[in-house]
Design a protein that fits this description.
Layout: E1 10-12, E2 15-18, E3 32-40, E4 49-60, E5 67-74, E6 77-81, E7 84-88, E8 92-96, E9 103-106, E10 110-117, E11 132-135, E12 142-144, E13 147-154, E14 164-171, E15 187-193, E16 195-200, E17 203-208, E18 212-215, E19 221-226, E20 231-238
Antiparallel strand pairs: 1-2, 2-18, 3-4, 4-10, 5-8, 5-10, 6-7, 6-9, 8-11, 12-13, 13-14, 14-20, 15-18, 15-20, 16-17, 16-19
The structure holds (2S)-amino(carbamoylamino)ethanoic acid and manganese (II) ion.
């Protein structure tokens, strides 16, 4: 309970830091037994939505209005599509292409990050996106720019049929991005573990597990991990599409 009107949350034209003390929940049509915290949406200026879905036992997501990516934060979810079924435990994830009928149901109480993005038209090949299911912990990590203290795991396939990336980035205490990034892609970021200092635009913010960050295209960004344990975040970016092609 905060009586003095203070929060670390901050909204600027090129970024949002949204901390858990400011989260407001909403139901959404088609979903049952699920509350959603809508972090990023077109109203914010984002080209995608990112939500935290909080499931009661047997809670189900509604139909997806676009491509859907689900990352399990807590509990277990069952994804069904056609005659197939997959159980996703914590750190499990799934991608469902646009227009693929499916259901996502919680076995018991559960929480998940849900990212949805309209599919970007593609001219370079006839590849068709497929359902992807995986476990983040079993994906090999790559040192970012040769820095073993900063490890990236790519959860989405890297083919022309896929127009966004979702990665986890794990920073040892004291590790930092080797440069301030300024790029055309936007980001949705959920802090999973630990914390540090995030530079967004011309501001520096203390951030910790549970925080959400939206970065607009070209938002200057940098992160350095602080504390005695590793910092880890889940990060979305739009990817592999010509900026002139809608
Ligand atoms: O993939 C990225 O752009 C990533 N390195 N950005 C970030 O961590 N803010
Ligand atoms: Mn970036």
């Amino acid at each position: 309970m905060q009586h003095l009107g203070f929060t670390r949350s901050s909204l600027k034209t090129d970024h949002l830091l949204q901390t858990p003390d400011t989260f407001i929940r909403t139901p959404l049509p088609g979903a049952m037994g699920v509350d959603f915290v809508v972090h990023a949406a077109p109203r914010l200026g984002a080209g995608f939505t990112q939500m935290t879905a909080e499931f009661l036992k047997d809670g189900t997501l509604g139909p997806a209005p676009a491509q859907r990516f689900v990352y399990v934060l807590e509990g277990e979810l069952v994804l069904s599509a056609g005659s197939k079924e997959w159980t996703l435990a914590a750190n499990g994830f799934a991608f469902v292409p646009a227009g693929t009928a499916h259901t996502v149901r919680a076995v018991d109480r559960a929480r998940a990050a849900v990212i949805e993005k309209p599919y970007g038209a593609m001219s370079e090949s006839d590849d068709v996106a497929q359902i992807v299911v995986g476990d983040e912990a079993s994906i090999a990590s790559v040192a970012l720019m040769g820095d073993e203290g900063l490890r990236v795991r790519s959860l989405m396939p890297d083919g022309p049929a896929y127009d966004f990336a979702v990665n986890t980035m794990t920073y040892d205490p004291g590790a930092a991005l080797g440069m301030v990034e300024v790029h055309v892609m936007e980001h949705g970021l959920l802090m999973l573990e630990g914390g540090g200092i995030y530079r967004l635009g011309d501001a520096w913010y203390p951030v910790e597990a549970g925080d959400f960050i939206w970065m607009a295209p070209y938002c200057p960004q940098w992160f350095g991990a602080l504390g005695k344990t590793a910092a880890k975040y889940l990060i979305y970016k739009d990817w592999r599409r010509h900026p002139l092609v809608k």
